[in-house]
Specification:
Elements lengths: L17 H10 L8 E2 L1 H8 L3 H14 L2 E4 L3 E4 L4 H25 L2 H20 L2 H19 L2 H13 L1 H8 L4 H17 L3 H21 L2
Antiparallel strand pairs: 1-3, 2-3
Helix pairs in contact: 1-3, 2-3, 4-6, 4-7, 4-9, 4-10, 5-6, 5-9, 9-10
Length: 219
């Protein structure tokens, strides 16, 4: 029996990170597009109060990951390819900004971590491990956001990426995509390592333009 199960409704452990927990479950495909998200089931699953679950679902609805249905609760929102394209087009402005800032802010310690990540990406591509490559791409995106020290851009990008996560996962396995995107990611890393904001911006813009092109082919 879990700790939450032996507590009364008023004593149920509150989860301030419940929004993040459910968000990650959606992004990890634990819940499918259009799947209903029932408050009672989520409350039992995560050991959280119904009020906490309701708040988390409202937060996720605000992010565009969940949609509220009149008199039917909530369900996972499906993002169309057209919406995914629009999201990437918006990301271009934000991610090029973050890449510039990352190049400007890079410290010796940050550079060492980026070089290690670069080596991991090359190793994943060399071994054909697309799952690892997809995960490392997400890690690279996160590192660049962190290095930018730009809070507003980071918050907006995290929301946009959450909405298009399923399409990003599909892209990683699109035939021939990894062979194209890996050198693009390496170019971004090398520009940041060189502390060249203009090159970092250009490499990021070229990479995202390529994503838009591939998405158009998936329509």
């Amino acid at each position: 029996m879990t700790d939450a199960a032996v507590l009364s409704d008023d004593e149920t452990i509150e989860r301030p990170d419940l929004t993040q927990v459910i968000r990650e479950a959606i992004l990890d495909a634990q819940f499918a597009p259009h799947q209903r998200l029932i408050e009672a089931d989520l409350s039992e699953r995560y050991g959280a109060s119904r009020a906490s679950v309701r708040t988390a679902l409202l937060n996720l609805a605000g992010e565009g990951l969940v949609e509220r249905l009149p008199n039917r609760g909530a369900r996972v929102r499906a993002i169309t390819v057209d919406e995914a394209i629009e999201i990437v087009e918006v990301r271009i402005g934000l991610e090029t900004l973050c890449a510039r800032k990352a190049a400007e802010n890079l410290s010796p310690t940050d550079a060492d971590e980026l070089r290690a990540l670069r080596a991991d990406i090359e190793a994943a591509i060399g071994s054909g491990d697309l799952m690892a490559y997809s995960r490392l791409n997400q890690e690279l995106d996160r590192r660049i956001r962190d290095l930018s020290h730009h809070g507003t851009a980071t918050q907006l990008l995290e929301r946009l990426r959450a909405q298009s996560a399923r399409h990003q996962f599909r892209l990683a396995f699109h035939p021939g995509r990894a062979a194209t995107s890996a050198p693009e990611h390496i170019a971004i890393i090398d520009a940041i390592l060189a502390k060249d904001p203009d090159a970092a911006e250009a490499a990021t813009r070229a990479h995202l333009a390529g994503i838009v092109e591939v998405l158009h082919g998936m329509e």
